[in-house]
Amino acid sequence: MQPDEKYLRELIAQLDKLHQDALELETKFSDAIRQVHPSFSKSARNLLHYLSLRQHDIRKLQEGLASLGLSSLGRAEGHVLASLQAVRDMLCHLLDCTPIKKQVAVSYTESSELLDSHTKELLGPAPEKRNTRIMVTFSTDLAYDHELVKRMLLAGMDCARINCAHDSEKVWRSMVQSIQKAEKETGRHCKILMDLMGPKLRTGPLKPGPALLPIRPIQNALGQLVSPAKVWLAPPGTPSEVPVDATLPVDAAWLAQLQQGDKLKFSDTRGRKRTFTVIQRKGSGVVAHLFKTSYIGTGTSLTIKKKTALERTTLVGALPASIAPITLRKDDLLVLTKEQVPGEPALYDAAGHIIKPAHIACTLPEVFSHVKNGQPILFDDGKIEGVIMDVSEDALLVKITQAKETGSKLLYDKGINLPESKLQLEGLTQQDREDLSFVVKHADAVSLSFVNQPEMIEDLHQELKRLKAHKLGIVLKIETKEGFRNLPHLLLTVMKTHPAGVMIARGDLAVECGWERLAEVQEEILWLCEAAHIPVIWATQVLESLSKKGRPSRAEITDAAMSQRADCVMLNKGAFVLRAIELLDDILKRMQEHQHKKTSMLRLLHVSELELPTTKQKK
User: Which region, left, alpha or beta, applies to residue 356 given φ > 0 means left and ψ of -120 to 50 means alpha?
Assistant: First the structure.
């Protein structure tokens, strides 16, 4: 049946209105467009066109277009005006009228080319058979385990992330040197991204406890042994050449007589009898396996169980003081202090009544001027939730509203989120400025943490200009509610230099926006970044169980498959990170055959050919 002419003209009128509004928004922000880097000129215009499109509710229009077998504009992000023009041309064809050519910023082909080019500049060339890059967060031990770094590159790692919130310049330099050496030996390229710590609100130090080191083998959910703990026994100050779970300082002369297979008996601080088994000599130290949880203190006695030993016994050297966490339960009180005094658990009297609530410091004094009674506060990626009961000049009184029934442990340097508070943290911290001098010399890109306002990006631009780092890529970490709300302005600001990208920091973002909104929020970030032809890094808890415990959950496999819609996927550090890289590489290659961004790729299905059952006709 021929479509109604009046209806078709109404659809054309709606498309024309969308096109006109898009151009008007572009004109309104013409000054901002003129300031972006030439590589982003068309992308900035298209971003504004997309923002204009999404200011309208076009669901009825989409239904009408789909009913005619036309594009419903559901994949218009990267080429908005071109999509509107193409659909309008088809409607004109149905009306047998002459199409009117309108201004188009980015064609379909240009959209794909721009995103590919921007991604290559920031994250390096696409690997064979896979467009989505794999980024891996480096842990401290990778600074000294070159062989593992080399294997990670061969397994599929394309980018390495070094977090300036941890370790030191000495460790970062070793990481960079190990990556560069692995690149030469494998012939593979690896981009280096370094994270500035940013103005993240964190918990302060805790009161030190006894010199005690707990060492735990890896167990599964049933408490069964998955892998023994690896322990490095070496003279004091000797770093391990392989990844280990713990380090014990031991006398060098006593260590020199140890051989593979030797058994070292000891009683831990609880009086439990335990055994180390030497599995490897490495330089002046040895690597030993431990199969049962042990608590080892300064002065713990180790005894060799063999007759040829020259010295049968030695003592463990000085260990650092342990840090006792603060255990919090629902309805407990916690005092957050401005003064950086070591935190302590609550004090109780003999009857179990609280004499003094637990207290811990926070790292940003600006908090105390911008929070109010009744506002929520969350700790350690939302594992502990509370509400602010009282605000004073020097402290916040918090009532815990959510925690484990057995109690949740709060440690030093854990994140604090205030999702309903505006802290107005706009510039780089002094620590960020100091770290930048190292970053510009060794990294391909810098990641800006907790970016909420364009002023913070401008500050970074000025600092990079001062350091003459004109080609350093910038990645915006979107991890707060305010950063998400301001994303269009942040994108237009970061596009003043090239290359640039966005990281969806799903951990903090979920805490800030609510877990129930995370899927919706990350979709909107993906849409906006595709409109701007800005590459996206999908981060936080990808294959986390596999990387840390050796076995992925079913939900993690699905999450990893969905991550293919981003341009890069980040894995966190873990004992089984190599296995996680290999699995992610396989998943991304498979999913690439099924989906590109939001578009389903309809290749031949891998199912058996269906045969209709034969039926006998009744006589």
Answer: beta
